[in-house]
## 1
Amino acid sequence: MEAPCILENPHTLPPEEAARRLGVDPSRGLSSEEARERLERCGPNVIEAGKKRGFLETFLEQFKNMFVVMLLVATAFSFYVGETVDALLILAIVVFMAVMGAVQEYRAERILEALRRLASPRARVLRDGRVVAVDASEVVPGDIIVVMEGDRVPADARLLEAKSLYVDESMLTGESVPVAKRADVTLPGDTIEPERVNMLYAGTFIVRGAGRAVVTATGRNTYMGRIARMVAEAGEERTPFQLELDRLAKRIAVMVTAIAAAAFTVGYLLREASLVNLLLTSIALAVAAVPEGLPAIVVIAFSIAAWNMARRNALVRRLAAVEALGSASVVATDKTGTLTMNEMTVRQLHTPDGGVYTVTGEGYSLEGGVYEGDRRVTVEDSPLLRLAALVAALNNNAAIEDGRVHGDPLEAALLVLAHKLGLDPGDARRRYRRLREIGFSSERKRMTVVVEGQEGILVLSKGAPEVIIERSSSYMTRGGSVKPLGVEERRELLRRVEEVAARGFRLLALAYRRGGAEDLEAGEDEVESRLTLLGFVAVIDPPRPEVPEAVRRALEAGIRVVMVTGDHPSTARAVAEMIGLPRGRVVTGQELERMSDEELRDIAEEVAIFARVTPEHKARIVKAYKERGHIVAVTGDGVNDAPALKLADIGVAMGKRGTEVAKEAADIILLDDNFATIVAAVEEGRRSFDNVKRTVLYLLSANLAEVATVFYAAVRGIGVIFNAAMLLWLNVVTDGFPAAGLAFERAEPDAMKRPPRRRGQPILGKPQFTYLALLATVETLLTLGLYHLYAPRGPGYGRAAAFLGLMYAELAQSLALRRLNTPISLGMLASNKQWLLGYLAGAVLAALAVTALAGLFHAAGLGLGDVAAIYLLAHLVVLGYEESRKRLGLHV
Ligand code: ATP
């Protein structure tokens, strides 16, 4: 019997029974063949089942264009009336164009797919009796998965075995406390998902322990998949540029159809070609001149950019984000871990009575000690040091193994401090049983544990100094006596906090209280009160070395960098100074609470730092900048950051620290959590935007020149200057090769020196339309001029010269457009291989068409001397015109 793709209600079954029904031996796992078969049958383990187009399909889609179909029909007709050579030539060119188009689109799609694969996690499964790592998308129902601390659960699964297994299911339930899981229970059928302790759910994280489980559902059948399905998924998203170009292409289609009809009528009146030929020519004109490929070019340019961004550690989840990045004008960034290294070292321990102990050593190495002047001190020396070390070691969920930190780096630094004070945290954790934990959150800015040891029950708290001071009623001196905390003392302590923070230290206060059984039941506020302050530690988290340069580049590019941090305003200001952020107003979360949205919007431009804010404030900050017309990027990692990430134009999630929720909400994932990567991504965004622009301008002006030439020629009585085959050939020479190459152009030298685009500024505004009109006029005049120059030798010569002239003019223009507004130079010729190949191929194809192949096009063959002369003339005219335009400051 075939194993099912979903096992219903697995939580009601004993583990062995679940495995049996899923047709797997839990000690060996599935065989590779069985796994392959199930993958085929049940589908990949992904939530968005993206449809994959093969090359053939992509190729055939190129013919879904109305004009191409008309052309094929007309070609068939001309075949029928006996114009076999013409018909075959047209057919060959059309197929060639379709292949070119398909190759490009196919490549873009493969790039996007590769990107998606990069983003997909891996999973450990038991296959053929061995544990192997596979792509999480290849996990199938019945697989035995092996999970351990730090893993993301790849699919829904029934536990077979769990060793002190704790799972973070906050992405599903919003509950941030890890859930304890066990294998040895069966549950009633109506147990709701969050309470099925014998199940693992796709997308959740193992925070502690290890386990084995049998997969009961994959992909869209998982709990996460069902939720995702409810959150209605939008169809294939198009970027604003694509929509703009879609609209433009439609308008051009109408215009071109009119012109083609006019050319047809004039030709008919002049009776200079057969009806079939005229028809073919007019339709070919439409095929050549309607830029159907424009929206696809956006995809191509943006997917190249997305690929480059991935290489620079920024994974793009939505293509539209590439476009938005290119125009980002505000980056609101977290401090810890993004601007700084998130490598914490405790440097000082300040006591409430004004003493300062110095802590030596670096990072998470246990070397170093705590000193009072020259004298090393330990927990033996005073009750204060002993209690401080206890808070550091026990109010702590981090671990350090072989120098690697698991958990919060700040807490890891506290473990190191405990060590340096002579207290072994592992030993302390054995001696004191943890009875309760009131977890840390950015909103609460504090954390408390209740422990029980020989001396009874203790409440141990740590958190932001203001918060802990407020909740303390007394303090301990170095001598060990406990004194009441009066108004005066509080003021003095806050002044010292301010002073130490201003030197760039992060501060964390430590406090304790003797507790009792009531502390296990009492409300959080009740437990975290009447504390005795033990002092505060000053922690250094150095800025990332590459950040100052990145900040400088961002500022130069006209981008406002705003720090949004949960940290103390003075610490934030000191770090801002270190990384070169311009000075500005510092707004705290408290002030923000009192401000209306309008007030916030009014001062937004002056603010440099938002300090002591919570994730909820972030969304308001993003909104304020958006309302001022900015295009806003915001970073985030926590579950509560999701609204801000969604609201922003560009949500940036942290790849290392980020929760799955934040990543899901984001447009871009920073693999290295680094601010510098955002700036690099902006640069790629700007580059791809320029490339879209140059390709669009190139194609449109080339097409416009073709239409204008045909039209003028008709009006001036020259008649049908280009036949169908010529028009299509022109299109291959211009669209096919150099245009594709332009999408690969490198960043312009001034790309990061100009201000960002304004919100909603179209690609094609007035300056661009002026550009198109002028350039098309220049090229048309050149083409008609060449016709008249060569026509005296015979009309076949005139047509050949005009044909070649226009092709070379367009190639010359592709060269000029490699810099939109700055002069080109010889040195950059070879810097874009794709373009260079396209240009050379185009030049050769152009020459072939008027020499060896001239007969096919019903043109007279030109000599090589003529070809060279026309090449030079076309380049002289077009480059001369373009470079003057750039110098005159007529920017596009
Ligand atoms: P950023 O928002 O730039 O990442 P941050 O990490 O300081 O900065 P939060 O994580 O919101 O922001 O922390 C706010 C404050 O809470 C910190 O400045 C610190 O005083 C305190 N704090 C941080 N981590 C803990 C913790 N594990 N336990 C107790 N208090 C903490």
Note: The first strand starts at residue 122 and ends at 127.
## 2
Amino acid sequence: MKPLNFALGAGAVALAAAGPAAAQTIVRVSHPTPATSHYGVGTQAFCADLEKRTANRYKCQIQAGANDERASIEAVQLGTLDVTNTSTGPVSNFVPEVGIVDIPFLFRDYDHARKTLDGPIGQEILAKFPGKGIIALAWTENGFRHLTNSKRAVVKPDDVKGLKVRTMQNPVHIQAFQSIGVQPTPMAFSELFTALQQGVVDGQENPIPVILSSKFSQVQKHLSLTGHVYSPALLLMSPALWNKLSDADKTAFREAAKTGAAAQRKKVNDDEAAGIAQLRADGMEVVVAVDGNAFRTALTPVWTDFAKKYGADNIRRIQDVK
Ligand code: EAX
């Protein structure tokens, strides 16, 4: 028997919809943190909306807690994974221009970041991905990053001098931390909990939703609300699957990605609102009154470098988003 020809017209489509279930494509999706985290909530919302929009012709298989974002991005590039929801942590190793959004103290607040990424600037950055063998569906969100450590309460830049802090495998972050006297130790997220537990590093930095969902309160005493950098995230897709999609299905994936992003950001908001009290209850000592201006000033020299690398005009354009 010949395979069903989907170009038969509306009648055939209606018949297929009324008849036995149409062929189903499994979409393999990963995200770094547990299912209950912001990434889990966002990914599940993406999948539910995709399945609904395509009448279940696409069905997700979600791998939660995949941990190693760099490996997930490589798998998406290779086509052994279809979609990953990842922070930009390792992304600039694949698409260098993305590094601009990883600059510390670039975004003023959540509104500024979300507006920039959903607007023309963010869309221009997404357009850089296909040239590197990756489809970027939408910006999701990890959140503003805060510093935790096992040694001391950090209020000002002097307090971090000499601390061994795990950073993401992100050139912008590594350079920024080095410039204020931190010993940055880049490593995959998958190794982080054990590294903190065994004292291989003194500290780490992540948004509240990650600190909560990864239970870092079990291995870190001090939390300082440094909010030193916004950590964007993305839903990235493999061209191997993307290139097989009809235009209508491409739209379904893109729209579902927006639904996922909205759910993920809402969960970030909720965790920001309730998370600090929870972390205190879990035994963390929280410094709220961090000297943010002193951290900003300490990072001024490295900003000069970033302006050279990414273009002062491009940075200004992001700062000017109101
Ligand atoms: O995306 O590696 C990190 O610290 C990330 O923030 C984490 O995997 C969530």
Note: The CA atoms of residues 109 and 232 lie 12 Å apart.
